[in-house]
Amino acid sequence: MKITAIRVQRLRLPLEPPFHAAWDPDPRGHFDASIVRVETDEGVTGIGSGDTMSGFAEFEHLFIGRDPLALAAHARALETISFHAGRYWPLEAALWDLAGRALGVPVATLLGGGCERVPAYASLGELRPPGQRAEDGRALIEAGFKAVKVRIARDRIAEGIAVVAAIRDAVGDALEILVDLNQWWRMAGDIAPGLDPQAARRVIDRLAEHGVLWVEEPLAGADLSGMRMLRETTGVRIAGGEMARSFDELRLALEHDALDVVQPDVVLALGISGVRTLADLALRRNRWFSPHTWTNGIGLLANLHVCCGVGGGPYLEYPYDPPGWTPERRDFMLTQPVGIDTDGCLAVTGAPGLGIELDEQALAHHAL
Prior knowledge:
This protein has twelve helices and twelve strands. It is an alpha/beta fold. Strands 4, 5, 6, 7, 8, 9, 10, 11 and 12 form a nine-stranded mixed beta sheet that branches. A three-stranded antiparallel beta sheet has the order 1-2-3. Strand 1 (3-19) and strand 2 form a beta hairpin. Helix 1 runs antiparallel to helix 2 (89-103), helix 4 (130-143) packs across helix 5 and helix 8 (247-255) packs parallel to helix 9. The longest helix has 15 residues, at 89-103. The radius of gyration is 20 Å and the shape is globular. The two termini are 31 Å apart.
């Protein structure tokens, strides 16, 4: 079997009302997605999505005509490309999807089959006042969730802590609460000062009073000693790594005892092959592996299969913050949005590959 073509289709879903992402100063009036198809001479096609794939055309010759099942070689090629250009990991997800389809098994099985489902946490994306978030917390319990992640803006710390307190008061122990400070990386153009280790420690100490499960990205990703200090002095788990540029970035974080929870997103950072190896290292060090997943339903499925393949957890991120962010918006390119089951879990269905079913009418309607 040989790769005959790599096709990238760009989509845009208008958002009305706009989505006010906590990590982005500009409201989002549309949601873009790039669909990657890898076609073969035997009629098997793999599908991926995640980062934009902008500029990939000049590198596709490195894959055309090659065996699509040479997954390790393709992952190494993508690592070399990422040094010079963009994050083209959606292509690798498509190759894994293709491999699963060709062999008739889920990608999670190819990666080890550690488990078949993992509890999801509702990952909130907007900044809302404490009273509203208390109501949202109660609604999440009704929807079946057992955990929620709250984002706190570095210029609205007091309000963020009040939100956590309001949710805890409203739900008691019915929800685990996770907190994201979004300090590891920056949006383009964001050069404002971030939290230093002592400021972050004071924030985490206050969050600890409300029994948070972990605090995500409290410092810049390069400050491994600072994150290790936070782990050791606050007693709260420290998480991070969603947008890591290289395998060694997170390997060093593990070696420096900087993280309790490693979170690379397979369609944004390291790819499925790299994340699979890193997850195994983390689990062998008695750390948690809970990948970030904030792209779309295809990216969510890719991370789900890796998490289940290695037996990760205890939770998997599930972007969910209605009405601004719903499964229908997030997964507009799929025939059905990816949903949780009655136990609040995301499950590998048993379908070959990543279990992707594209809505061709939606793709045609939203094509750029």
